[in-house]
Every structure is written in structure tokens, then in C-alpha cells.
Amino acid sequence: MSDHDHTPGLTIVRDDRVLRVTIDNPGRKNAIGYDAMIALGDTFEKLDPAVRVVVLTGAGGDFSTGADLFAAAAEKDRGITPEMTMDGANRMVRSIIEAPVPVLSRIRGATAGIGVALALSADLTYAGEDAYLLQAFINIGLMPDGGASALIAAAAGRSLAAELALLGERLPATEAYRRGLLTGVLPVDELDAKVEAVAAKLAHGPRRALELTKSTLNRAALSSLDEALAAEKTGQSELLGSADFAEGAAAMLGKRKAVFAD
Q1: Which InterPro entries does UniProt cross-reference here (predicted)?
Q2: Phi, psi for 53 (deg, rounded to 5)
């Protein structure tokens, strides 16, 4: 059995027990707009009982560069506030963590901004050797969101979380794996075979045992997630209205160096 659905920025295909969710905006390196955030949250909150595993990936050669700044002006004109955006982002990430089935993320190329939170909210994260993680928020006057502060610290410790958040520099997939952020890193031509093999194994595993194992692991490892999401919403909502963010976004879109306030 195979089902297919498409919403702007997202493609969903169900193949028997496996649901494949693809962030589909390759022209913008799979940047995620508000509508795609809501659709992702809906997808994971309303999984068909026949689905036993979800594979989350990005179209083309990138996973996701995070929130779509090019769409921000149009979203503002539609009445979408920073608080609404943060609520949508938090719900999207939480829906993956709380999904009753295992979620695999398959990443290549750019995995940046809230794309990092999406990738790490999965239970198992496999990367091609061409992938890198980038928490670039600080470069445009923002802070990490989507629970990234908790997800990164839980997987690899406060030191790496601070390094990524405060310096805003790329972390190659091989180094991310060495430091505990990824489940595995493979040559690009071997990545799909590995993800498919793991998905097939989980799709035929004991559903209830997998669900309880996943929820227990997340309860133990992510006990601070609620607090992190709340703090990120408060801080990011403030920063999204700041002069520093206006300068940072303009600089990024204009491909120049930002000059922040003294």
C-alpha cells in the first residue's frame, strides 16, 4: 500500500508500514515556512496506526537550513506573530519526540537552525559524510530554538551546546558523530541503504515495546525539554522584534557582515 500527500514545503509518502516525510523546498535548501511547520506537527500528531516507523529527510542534497527568512515578510502580512512561529516550531519538534513510533532522520548537506532541532528530535539520526550541523542563530542576533539547547546538551553535553550556540560555526558530520550527536555517519552512496535497513527492522519490531522504550528514554534524557522550549519561546520572541535581528537578517539576505548595536 502506498499513499502520497503534498503540502507546500512538505511531501509525505506512506509505503506500507513506513512513512516518509520529506522537507521539500530545495530551491531554498529546504528552509521551513510557517505552513510547513504546522503541517509537520499535524503529520506526527495524527499518525495512521498502520505506520510503524517514520523517516524524516530533506529533498535534494540538504536536510534543512531552518526557518525561511524569505517567507517571513509574507507571513507577517498574514498576521503570523513571532509567538505563533515559536509555538509552531515547538509543537513540530515536540510532535516528533512524542510520536508513538521510532523516527529516523536522514541528513545530508546543510542542517542548520531549527533544522538541527528537527534532525536531533528523531530517535536515530544518520548522516552522509557531506553533512554538517550549524546553529547560526547568533550570527543574525537570535538564539537557538526548537528545543536545541536541551537536545544538544542531552546528547553531547553543555560544552558542545555552548560551542555551537555561541560561536555559530559549522560542525562537520564526522565530528558531530565523534562527539555523540549522531547515530552514524556514512559515505553518501551508502546512506540510503543503511536508513532503509534500519527502517525495515523497526517496521517489523514489537510496536508497543518500541513505543514504551522510546518514551522512557526521552523521559530520562530530556527531562528539561519543557523548560527549554518555554525559555526559548520567551527569548526568541523578544529577539525576533529586536534591531539586532533586523540587521542580522538584512545582512544575511544581502550577503554581507552584520553590524550589531554597541
Answers
A1: ClpP/crotonase-like_dom_sf, Enoyl-CoA_hydra/iso, Enoyl-CoA_hydra_C
A2: -160, 150
Q: How many domains does the chain have?
A: 1
Q: What is the mean pLDDT of the chain?
A: 94
pLDDT of residue 3: 63
- Distance of alpha carbon 83 from alpha carbon 81, whole angstroms: 5
**131 within a domain of the structure (yes/no):** yes
Beta bridge partners of 19: 14, 54
What local confidence, expressed as pLDDT, does residue 4 receive?
A: 65
User: Is the torsion defined by CA of 119, 173, 12, 39 positive or negative?
Assistant: positive
Judge whether 153 lies within some domain: yes
Tell me the per-residue pLDDT of 161-195, one tens digit each, with 9 for 90 and over. 999 999 999 999 999 999 999 999 999 999 999 99
Written in H, E and C, the secondary structure of 109-172 is: CEEECHHHHHHHHCCEEEEECCCEEECCHHHHCCCCCCCHHHHHHHHHCHHHHHHHHHHCCCEE
| Residue 121 domain flag | yes
Closest C-alpha among 37, 57, 177, 184 to residue 109: 57
99/229 Cα distance (integer angstroms): 17
Give the domain CATH number at 57.
3.90.226.10
Question: Residue 133: which residues within 8 A CB-CB, separation 6 or more?
Answer: 111, 112, 116, 119, 164, 170, 171, 173, 176, 181
What are the residues facing 105 on neighbouring strands? 56, 125
Any domain includes 195 = no
